[in-house]
User: Which sequence fits this backbone?
């Protein structure tokens, strides 16, 4: 029997909803591989690979594979005053209004936004320290997931890394000696939060408050830049009715780090800030202006979608409305509430073997490596993860020792019915129904 023509096979796959050119590719590769009977499965696999919403039942709040913080902005197709000053009718700055909101939130002079925290650190280093030295503690030469490596970022920025102290102990005196060394050319000190690991035992780290009077050999002040990474805005969490959760205890916050004397802080938009992928640089107006004037600022600037999204996020923080921020809404839910929801889903599923269990969620996203947040959810015998992923929408669960766990902290109550349906299908081995 002859294989079907590429065009006929492609047309027969139209029900998958993929545009014709993609179906032609599927048909051609199926025929070339000699398995045109599996063309439909191939087309469905392509559809499956497209970006789509998933339900996060992993218990990891900021799951890098699942896009870190869940944040939506409602943005219409419309022109905006992105770089237009409505008061004067002249060209304006895209950084000004959102920058001012973040400066207000950090209680500092100025702020600007770039594409992520890696870009923020790169830009600051390039703008303040090109061809000059950057002091970094040997305990803070970190690698953060996705290839952010402090020594390489500094090298890429055209600056020179000057290591100070030791792996486990670095004191203010180490910075002071390095900054004042004759013939040195020190442009800044960079303190990097050890976001995703901890050194325990005989340790000592230098904080921004220890370096407020750091001076070079000529007596000039050396600016201190803190890469705090996670983007916790304020240690007091005024946007949460209950105040800061206990698990947040040791996380550095932008406002306090600046108040203690950092000249600039850099942080991510999609970690504890709970927003879209972005990086914020906040602090001294003079230093932020230097960053904004550097040619890399043009390459690192976000578009109007991200700026509008961050503006909405900043407004929620300014309104002290943590409930409007999905990450904080989920992070702040009590384990009792989660247990009650899991109980309800278990009852809807009766007879399928789901057991309500206590568990621990984690912040994730390379933040707070040792923190566990008391949580609750469901446990099933066997590995149901593939069947749950096959559901529409996909439900992402965790498997451990041949048991499947669904943590109810990391999805919203309005998704409980969808999760119940996915579990019903997964445990019965039946087809995944649309809901
Ligand atoms: C996460 C993190 C980064 C990288 O942030 P991105 O927004 O992913 O680029 C940089 N520095 C620290 C300390 C971090 O925790």
Assistant:
């Amino acid at each position: 029997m002859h294989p079907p023509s590429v065009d006929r096979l492609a047309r027969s796959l139209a029900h998958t909803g993929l545009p014709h050119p993609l179906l032609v590719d599927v048909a051609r590769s199926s025929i070339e591989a000699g398995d045109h009977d599996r063309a439909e499965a191939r087309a469905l696999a392509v559809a499956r690979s497209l970006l789509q919403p998933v339900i996060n039942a992993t218990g990891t709040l900021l799951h890098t594979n699942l896009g870190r913080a869940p944040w939506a902005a409602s943005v219409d197709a419309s022109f905006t005053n992105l770089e237009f000053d409505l008061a004067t009718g002249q060209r304006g700055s895209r950084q000004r209004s959102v920058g001012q909101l973040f400066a207000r939130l950090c209680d500092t002079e100025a702020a600007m936004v770039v594409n992520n925290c890696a870009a923020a650190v790169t830009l600051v280093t390039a703008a303040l320290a090109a061809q000059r030295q950057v002091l970094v503690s040997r305990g803070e030469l970190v690698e953060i997931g996705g290839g952010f490596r402090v020594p390489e970022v500094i090298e890429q920025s055209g600056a020179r890394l000057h290591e100070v102290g030791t792996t486990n102990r670095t004191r203010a005196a180490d910075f002071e000696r390095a900054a004042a060394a004759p013939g040195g050319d020190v442009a800044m000190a960079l303190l990097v939060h050890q976001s995703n690991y901890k050194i325990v035992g005989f340790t000592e780290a230098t904080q921004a408050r220890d370096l407020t009077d750091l001076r070079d050999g000529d007596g000039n002040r050396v600016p201190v830049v803190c890469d705090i990474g996670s983007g916790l805005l304020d240690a007091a969490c005024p946007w949460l009715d209950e105040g800061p959760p206990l698990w947040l205890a040791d996380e550095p916050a932008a406002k306090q780090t600046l108040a203690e004397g950092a000249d600039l802080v850099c942080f991510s938009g999609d970690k504890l800030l709970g927003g879209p992928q972005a990086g914020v640089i906040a602090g001294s107006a003079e230093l932020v202006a230097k960053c904004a004037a550097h040619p890399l600022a043009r390459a690192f600037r976000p578009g109007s979608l991200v700026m509008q999204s961050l503006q909405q996020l900043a407004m929620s923080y300014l309104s002290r409305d943590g409930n409007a921020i999905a990450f904080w809404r989920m992070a702040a839910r009590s384990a009792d509430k989660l247990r009650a929801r899991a109980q309800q889903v278990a009852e809807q599923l009766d007879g399928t073997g789901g057991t309500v269990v206590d568990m621990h969620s984690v912040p994730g996203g390379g933040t707070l490596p040792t923190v566990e947040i008391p949580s609750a959810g469901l446990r099933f015998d066997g590995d149901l993860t593939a069947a749950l992923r096959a559901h529409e929408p996909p439900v992402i669960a965790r498997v451990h020792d041949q048991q499947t766990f669904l943590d109810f902290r990391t999805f919203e109550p309005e998704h409980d019915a969808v999760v119940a349906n996915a579990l019903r299908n997964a445990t019965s081995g039946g087809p995944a129904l649309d809901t």
